[in-house]
Amino acid sequence: MSLKETVVMMTCYRAWANARTYEVVLSAPEGEITKVRKTHFRSIAYTLNHVYVIDDIFRAHLTGSKHEYTGRNTPSCPPVTALWQKQKALDAWYVEYAQGLDEGALDEMITFDFVDGGQGAMTRAEMLLHLATHTQYHRGFVGDMLNQIPIKPIPTDLPVYLRDMRGN
Fold it and tell me: How far apart, in Å, are the Cα atoms of 21 and each of 40, 137, 142?
C-alpha cells in the first residue's frame, strides 16, 4: 500500500468512526452529553468539540490559512447536533483533500505555530495520519464516558472498518 493509499484509507476510516461515534452520542440524553465528568475536557460534548477544533486548526495549516483559535478547545461548546454537522462537513473536506493529493504533496513539510506556543513542522502525510490517531485517542475517552451513562459504544476499530468496507 502506498503512502497516498494509506492516508486516504485512514482519512476515510476517521470519517466512518466519527459517524459511528456520533450515532451513539446523539442517542444519549442531552444532559449526559454535557454532564461534567472527571476527564480532561469535562464532558462528551467538549471532548468532541476539542476534536473538531484540532481538525479545523490542521485544515488551516494544510491550506496555509489563518485560524482564530487561541487554545485547543473553545470557551463555549456548540450543541452536539450542530457540532456533528460541522464535524461531518470537515470529515468530508478531509476525505476529498486526501484523495486530491499526490505523493509529492504528501511529503511536503509545513511549518506552523502551536496554539499554546512554539513552532512545529510536519509533512502533509504526518498531519493527516496524526488526525486519525488523535481522533481515535479521544473517541476512547468518549467511549469511556458513554459506558458511565451506561450506553454501549459502537466499535470503531480499524479492523471493523476494513471488514465493513470490504464486505467481509
Answer: 18, 13, 8
Distance, CA of 102 to CA of 57 (rounded, Å) = 22
CA distance 145 to 44: 7
- Write the pLDDT tens digit of every residue in 43-64: 999 999 999 999 999 999 999 9
- Alpha-carbon distance 120 to 117, whole Å? 10
Give, to the nearest 10 degrees, the angle between helix 44-63 and helix 124-148. Answer: 170
Contact residues for 158 (Cβ-Cβ < 8 A; gap 6+): 13
How many C-beta atoms lie closer than 10 Å to residue 109's C-beta? 9
Which pTM does this prediction carry?
0.96
H helices within 40-117, ranges in order? Answer: 44-63, 80-100, 103-106
> In the Cβ-directed half-sphere of 155, how many Cα atoms lie within 13 Å?
8
Torsion angle in degrees (nearest 10) through CA of 162, 24, 148, 73 = 90
Whether 162 and 155 have beta carbons less than 8 Å apart is answered as no
Whether residue 14 contacts residue 132, with contact meaning beta carbons closer than 8 Å, is answered with yes
Quick one: cell of 149?
Answer: 451513562
Helix, strand, coil distribution of the chain in percent, nearest 5: 65, 5, 30
